[in-house]
Amino acid sequence: MTHNKEIAIEARGLSVSFLIQRHGINNIKDFIITMGVKSPFEKKLVLKNLDLTIYKGECVGVMGRNGCGKSTLLRTIAGVMKPDSGTLKVYGNVAPLMALGVGLEPELSGMENIKLVSTLMGLSKKELKNSLESIIDFSELTTDEIDMQTKRYSSGMMARLAFSIAVATEHEILIIDEALAVGDLGFRKKCAKRINEIKNSGSTIIYVSHHLEEIKNICTRAIFMEDGKITLEGDVLSVCNYYEQHLKPKVAPPIVTTH
Amino acid sequence: MNPMIYLMIFTFVFGQVFSEIDRYPLYALTGLVFWIYFSTTTIQVIESIINSSGVLKSINVPTIAFPLAAQLASLISLLLSLIPFFILMLMFGLKLGWESLFFFPVVILFSCFTFGVSIILTSFNVYFRDVQMAWSSFMPAIFYSTPIAYTSSLIPEKFLWVIKLNPLYHYIGALREILYYNQIPSLGTFLLIGGIGIVTLLVGILIFTRLERGFVSQY
After folding, report:
1. In what order do the strands lie in the sheet with A85-90?
2. Of A44, A72, A119, A179, which is the most exposed, with the fewest CB atoms less than 10 Å away?
3. Range of the domain at A74
4. Set of chain B residues whose Cβ sits within 8 Å of the Cβ of A100
5. Residues of chain B positioned with their CB less than 8 A from the CB of A18
6. Cβ contact B57–A121 (<8 Å)
């Protein structure tokens, strides 16, 4: 049923590696002393030969154990990490919402931060001018608060500002990495509403979360990752069930004391 | 501010020692201002990437933008700080002439050199965070081995070649020739400092692009 749709993201045999440290060489002194004997860094394959197709307008939930490569997958899609082998095609501009508050400068005011982060996200001056009002509206921050230095913001206000910047403009692909668990209830509902709006406007959303409820509410499809590979792909409910079973805490055997 | 403190120390202490140098405060100042430009720029650029690691690991922006921004900010603040310094230099006997205009191309080439050195250090600093500390402790050694507060004529003839290996010597020398001696540096000097500047910049960019791939693993 999804096959007649346009493709938004297509990965074929995607492998991405990360440098890890061996031998504990993390300063230049050790590096010089052991020069040529040991290589200070080793490549560790995080994504292994991964195939993934995401269609336009889909909302895909990504689940998996910590450290299974979810964030690496998102970073590769966002263009921050480069694939070692395989191909990755991304059609459309990506708005990454990996961690809230990225790029916010504590010394600048809310207004200046909106301009700064929007520019980092790749908005032109004109686009920024058009979306400035909607960002401020969405964040529900007062004029006073917008002109205040962000270091004086409460963490909830900070999150509002950051989320508003990320979602106010229309991006074709939105990546959300466990960023929603912030703000008061009203704001969270608003976020969920906004995400639905984005979904309905035809944008693609990739959503990483450990909250099964959120995934069930938002996503139309889900994938489960294990050790750099996608092991299960399908409708939300079955993946959620699989997740629950798979990550069930192992029950420790009862301690039997004998006399 | 920093140059002012340096200047006070150097005029009072070394002014006595180097009394044979004509207009010593001007001599020291024409060197010190640019030395401080070099040292502050390298230190600011070194930190630029790891300070922005949060942005770099989640948003796809060109990494080079951060060191470049630090370099440009530093250059602008140099140009602004030159206004009070020119006034001070005039008090110390600076003569401005049309040859003073040659100051600008030299500063541009000096900036190329500075940026080249800085991005090499920055690239390594992402992998090994103590490069920054090693560089700051190395700094005084460079300062005293470059004829900034003293003249190269004080150095014994047979060690002069060592001093000439130091690229900073040629830049400070050219700037001083313009501002202190009111002379236009020879074509040879221009070729030399131009060559050093461009080669350092290219090597810097090469090393940076080579190491850039692994940056994301280090944030």
Report:
1. A41-55, A7-21, A85-90
2. A44
3. 7-246
4. none
5. 216-217
6. no
B127 contacts A27? CB cut-off 8 A: no
Whether the complex's predicted ipTM is more than 0.85 is answered with no
- Confirm whether pTM is higher than 0.95: no
* CB neighbour list of residue B129: distance below 8 Å, 6 or more residues apart: A26, A27, B50
Whether A75 sits inside 8 A of B216 (CB atoms) is yes
CATH number at A108 reads: 3.40.50.300
Number of domains, chain A: 1
Residue of A nearest to B56 (CA): A80
Across the 259 residues of chain A, what is the mean pLDDT of every consecutive 10-residue run?
70 87 72 70 86 88 86 88 88 79 82 88 84 86 88 84 79 79 73 82 86 83 88 86 77 68
Does any CB of chain A come closer than 8 Å to the CB of residue B131?
yes
**Count of CB atoms situated within 10 Å of the CB of B58:** 23
Interface contact flag, A31 B128, Cβ < 8 Å: yes
The DSSP 8-state label assigned to residue B157 in this structure reads: G
Rg of chain A (C-alpha set)? 21
Per-residue tokens: A81: 């990490």
Q: Check B124 against A28: CB less than 8 A apart.
A: yes
Domain of B102, in residue numbers? 2-51+59-217
Count of domains forming chain B: 1
Of A27, A31, A78, which is closest to B58 when you measure between CB atoms? A78
